[in-house]
Amino acid sequence: MEQRFSLVTLATRDLAKSTRFFEAMGWQRAVKDAPGCAFFQCGSAALALYPREDFYRDLAIADDGSDIGGVAVSYNARSKEEVDAVLERVAALGAEIVKPGHDVFWGGYTSFFRDLDGHIWEVAWNPGFPIDDSGAVHLPA
Fold this sequence. Notes:
Blueprint: E1 7-12, H1 15-24, E2 29-30, E3 38-42, E4 45-51, H2 52-59, E5 71-76, H3 80-92, E6 96-103, E7 109-114, E8 120-125
Parallel strand pairs: 1-4, 5-8
Antiparallel strand pairs: 1-5, 2-3, 3-4, 6-7, 7-8
């Protein structure tokens, strides 16, 4: 696993309102054809806004307000095989695999784990988000 993160995902109670907030701050939205979420390029990483109910459903965790706070750090891998290798490594180090690698509707492959302090990490391969040699993720316009 390279020393980097690709995205920070924030679970939002009102996606449209949150998207307008970031746009009003002067941030420019990327991936405009991604319904149900909003992305913003932030240097070599990205911010994702995602509906709270979908966020918790994807994790298969109850949204009881006491668990993870609606934030996930994402590591975008260069292949499905790298996703599985990262999961194998972090599990051996004591992380809890919340959801093993699986194909998803948007054409990628994703998984989730909790680190030793309970923080949620997504490890995903997204063929639409290229990663350059330095590890920077590049969102399409």
